[in-house]
Amino acid sequence: MIATQRLEKIKEILLIERTVDIHKLRSILNVSDVTIRKDLAELEKQGFLIKTRGGATLAEVSTQEITHSSSILNYDLKDYIATIAANTIEDGDTIFLGSGATCYLLAQKLKHKDVTIITNNISALYELTPHLKRVFLIGGELLYRENMISSSSEKVDDYFKDIYVNKAFTSISGIDLMAGLTVDHTLSTFVYKQVPNITKCWTLLADHMKFNKIALFQVGTIETPDRIITNQIDDIYKNAFLEKGVEVITE
């Protein structure tokens, strides 16, 4: 495992467990204690962790970056959408929660529900783990966007092939009548393309600024999701979704 891969793996472990010791890292990374100490020193220099005797803890600044709502672009719109989405979730549900700030805000509203969550949203995972008993992370390479952290991998289909959820929630980078549903990062496509295979109820969470926007990579058409929740939608898009059998919710 090369240095950059080791650093990403250490970050992933710390974001989930918040503390780690050198012995555990040695068994996971299969490198010497000297190499691990160098990696920890590099991440401490980046401000990601604080070295301790025999290991490290997640730096306070890292947790603040993940959880501080003021760092979320268009917070009010996304929180409004997340609130509507939370009202569609019931105790006993098994949920897939995608990446992005809106899904993170949705996670905040699920702390006291009796649900099982599968997610690649590490920011949401950090929010949920102190409260829910059953939260599962899909691993892979870490992605950083708008102070949110997620993971994905081209091998994610190996994980998804054995699971099924009754509800899935994802955000999206762009929605266009011709280009369909698009995202910014090629790694994200591997997760999005598996979502229709693991649920009969895929809910898209998108504020009005996502319409008439095209990102780099297509992950579906406007008929791919089962439902869209938004704060505002023009009639041309609303009618297009409804004609394809997609439920539209704005309140």
TrEMBL record:
<dbReference type="Pfam" id="PF08220">
    <property type="entry name" value="HTH_DeoR"/>
</dbReference>
<dbReference type="Pfam" id="PF00455">
    <property type="entry name" value="DeoRC"/>
</dbReference>
<keyword id="KW-0805">Transcription regulation</keyword>
<protein>
    <recommendedName>
        <fullName>HTH deoR-type domain-containing protein</fullName>
    </recommendedName>
</protein>
<keyword id="KW-0804">Transcription</keyword>
<keyword id="KW-0238">DNA-binding</keyword>
<dbReference type="InterPro" id="IPR014036">
    <property type="entry name" value="DeoR-like_C"/>
</dbReference>
<dbReference type="GO" id="GO:0003677">
    <property type="term" value="F:DNA binding"/>
</dbReference>
<dbReference type="InterPro" id="IPR050313">
    <property type="entry name" value="Carb_Metab_HTH_regulators"/>
</dbReference>
<dbReference type="InterPro" id="IPR001034">
    <property type="entry name" value="DeoR_HTH"/>
</dbReference>
<dbReference type="InterPro" id="IPR036390">
    <property type="entry name" value="WH_DNA-bd_sf"/>
</dbReference>
<feature type="domain" description="HTH deoR-type">
    <location>
        <begin position="3"/>
        <end position="58"/>
    </location>
</feature>
<dbReference type="InterPro" id="IPR018356">
    <property type="entry name" value="Tscrpt_reg_HTH_DeoR_CS"/>
</dbReference>
<dbReference type="InterPro" id="IPR037171">
    <property type="entry name" value="NagB/RpiA_transferase-like"/>
</dbReference>
<dbReference type="InterPro" id="IPR036388">
    <property type="entry name" value="WH-like_DNA-bd_sf"/>
</dbReference>
<dbReference type="GO" id="GO:0003700">
    <property type="term" value="F:DNA-binding transcription factor activity"/>
</dbReference>
